Amino acid sequence: MPTTRLPRLCTVALAAGALVALSAAGQAQSVEFGAGLQNTTWELEGDRFACEFRQPIPHYGTAVFHHRAGEDLEFYIETSYNRMRPGYAALAVEAPSWRPSNHVRDLGYVQVHESQRPLTVETERALAIMAGLESGMSPTFTRQGRGMNGPVRLRVSPVGFRNHVDDYRSCITGLLPVNFDQVERTVVNYDTGVDSLTRAQQARLNDVVTYILNDEDIVAIYVEGHSDNQSTRFDGRRRSERRALRVRDYLVDRGVDPQIILLDYHGDRYPVASNDTAEGRAQNRRTTIRLERFDLSLD
Q1: Given 2.60.40.2540, 1.10.10.10, 2.30.180.10, 3.30.70.1030, which CATH number is that of 10-173?
Q2: Are 47 and 180 in contact (CB under 8 A)?
Q3: Sorting pLDDT into bands at 50, 70 and 90, what band is 103?
Q4: Residue by residue, what is the 3-state secondary structure of 52-93?
Q5: In Å, how far are 54, 61, 105, 127, 155 from 131, measured between CA atoms?
Q6: What distance lies between CA 1 and its chain's CA centroid?
Q7: What is the reported pLDDT for 222?
Q8: In the chain, where does the domain assigned CATH 3.30.1330.60 lie?
Q9: pLDDT in tens, 36-66
């Protein structure tokens, strides 16, 4: 994901703290982490490439809704020190402590990993977590604690969520249709003897164009044509040239800077599959588009 980010859009600035409780028997200690009525903070950060909606969890880490361009929503917990044992944490949407209720929605179990993102929730349940917060409920993870006899309960507070969720939704509507990983290398395949572009291929190239025009770190675009071995070497090379030229022209006609496009064509010299089968020949009849970005790690 590109490192450039827009400024933080909203923050509900409040203090931090953690809730610690002992069991009634006083034998097994359970620890609960989560913000409350007076110390909940929501932060939104986003650009065309990704949107993140975060809640710091006092003395534990951060709960994050992450939506990357071209991908589905995911939810995860970030922490520098995971206090849950590896295994599976129970996930439920329940009433917060200040809103007594017996209503609980069980969302199953989430694997606890040994990493700085110990809990990751896939799209369907991430949406359920978001729906729970919007209705004033508190998504809660429960798992046996590390170095203790009792469980750790990790709560996400609903306070202020509805005040800022519309800003988050506005952010995700502005995301690009694809991300860099999805367009870094694009392959256009052809029927025998064909070098024109179908509507489906044009639609794929339109996504590539959209990404290129929005990412100022793209420094080069390599367009290379190829053919199978079912014609003479000369005819195959000319066919691969026409394929590459048509793709290059399509990109330029839609606003891509021609000076960063590097064109080449190879005929049948670089097959990616065997030319002895129809399936292999279909894979070899292709134009590849590869994007190169400025590498910030070189600074």
Answers
A1: 2.60.40.2540
A2: no
A3: confident
A4: EEEEEECCCEEEEEEEECCCCCEEEEECCCCCECCEEEEEEE
A5: 15, 22, 11, 6, 15
A6: 8
A7: 98
A8: 180-298
A9: 999 999 999 999 999 999 999 999 999 999 9
